[in-house]
Design goal:
CATH superfamily of the largest domain: Hypothetical protein af1432
CATH topology of the largest domain: Hypothetical protein af1432
Shape: globular
Distance between the termini: 64 Å
Strand order of the largest sheet: 1-2
Number of helices: 17
Radius of gyration: 22 Å
CATH class of the largest domain: Mainly Alpha
């Protein structure tokens, strides 16, 4: 293996697209004593965000809020960071950029994992919107929802660099492909209409995209075995796959080591970020196994129905507060719910105030007012979707239980 094959293409000040990479919609404040790079600042801004903190209580695959050993969304993000930074370092790419993209790539996941996305998609379609997909929602949260205090104690949007934002919305790894190249053009990221529509703008973004898939396959299998979600039949099937490709077993350790090594051995600026043909076939076979034995398993049916009930109940309760004739009265309607549903009404009331022009008199908040004057029910529905998508599993369950108390 040859190290640093990609060093001349890394996102640094020698890259001809460097200014595009580090562009921010709004410039951050600077201190004379700040020793961090632009990407290190992005990394810490994500690390300090509330959305990142909530990942520790969001489902990766298995909803099990009382089991400390089941992978959460935060642990998955850390796996992706580890895998992608190992690859980026060997290839000679910018590790700081890679780490920042990895840290932020799943901030937009809904509560309850994929099943939460499914129900939010149904809700969006009821209002004539397209489907909910977490890559775009991650960018929405980063650009419009998450706030940090600056050196003047004013709360502002994260304002991350273009390269980090691009890597986050471009990270979809569900499309089977081998030999990934970055796109050449800087585009308006709002032009993304579906996951995987465009490749990342940087090689670092391409590395994170591949690493995402490597990180979740083995860990999901380990969790399935740990909680007896799959049985001897499926374990025997995994053994046959491992024998077919000449490996002793299939678990997180084996998958991550073999696939990282294969990428480092086979990737080049001419052939892209790629696995060997052998390991690419193995990855696809493991992924197909996971979809059949785990992700689409009928054992999830009760859970799917429960998730749909929880999310739909919260949405419908809040949607009833919208006043079509006078949107400004919607806040009064929310306020009237506080006696029955103090947590739900109180938190959503604050959400609307912070992100709309209605009663937005707090000078501390200097963020985008993305809901304007909530002129339409579609805008109000989007506000509720934003609020729900940011919930942790346990918070959503707590809100649902509050609704059961009348």
């Amino acid at each position: 293996m040859t190290r640093n094959l990609f060093s001349r293409y890394a996102s640094d000040d020698n890259n001809p697209d460097w200014e595009n990479h580090i562009e921010r919609e709004t410039q951050l404040y600077h201190r004379k004593s700040d020793i961090r790079s632009e990407y290190e600042r992005d990394y810490t801004r994500i690390l300090h965000s509330l959305a990142y903190r909530r990942l520790k209580h969001k489902t990766q695959v298995f909803f099990n809020i009382d089991n400390d050993h089941i992978c959460t969304r935060m642990e998955h993000v850390q796996h992706v960071e580890s895998v992608s930074c190992t690859i980026a370092k060997f290839l000679g790419l910018n590790v700081d950029l890679t780490r920042a993209i990895a840290m932020g790539h799943d901030l937009g996941h809904a509560p309850f994992g994929h099943e939460g996305e499914v129900e939010l998609t149904r809700i969006r379609k009821d209002f004539g919107m397209d489907r909910f997909w977490h890559e775009r929602n991650s960018l929405r949260i980063i650009d419009n929802i998450e706030l940090l205090e600056d050196d003047k104690s004013e709360l502002k949007n994260l304002d991350l660099t273009y390269a980090v934002r691009d890597g986050i919305i471009s990270h979809c790894g569900e499309v089977d492909e081998n030999g990934i190249f970055p796109r050449k053009e800087k585009i308006d990221l709002d032009t993304f209409c579906e996951p995987g529509q465009f490749q990342a703008y940087t090689w670092e973004g391409c590395v994170v995209k591949v690493s995402d898939k490597i990180a979740y396959l083995g860990r999901d299998i380990e969790d399935a075995v740990r909680i007896n979600f799959i049985g001897e039949k499926e374990i025997d099937e995994l053994a046959k796959i491992s024998q077919k490709y000449g490996v002793e077993t299939i678990n997180t350790t084996v998958i991550i080591h073999n696939f990282i090594t294969s990428i480092c051995e086979n990737s080049s600026p001419q052939q892209g970020i790629r696995l060997s043909d052998k390991y690419n076939k193995m990855l696809k076979e493991i992924k197909d196994f996971n979809y059949t034995a785990i992700y689409k398993n009928e054992k999830f049916k009760v859970y799917r129905d429960y998730v749909a009930l929880v999310i739909r109940s919260i949405f419908n309760t809040l949607m009833k507060t919208y006043d079509v004739c006078n949107p400004y009265k919607s806040l009064d309607n929310i306020d009237c719910m506080k006696e029955a549903y103090p947590m739900l009404a109180g938190d959503f009331y604050k959400h609307i105030k912070v992100y709309s022009n209605i009663q937005g008199d707090n000078e501390k908040y200097k963020n985008k007012k993305i809901y304007g004057n909530i002129e339409t029910k579609e805008i109000y529905a989007q506000a509720i979707i934003d609020y729900i998508s940011g919930m942790t599993d346990r918070y959503a369950v707590e809100i649902f239980n509050e609704l059961l108390k009348y």
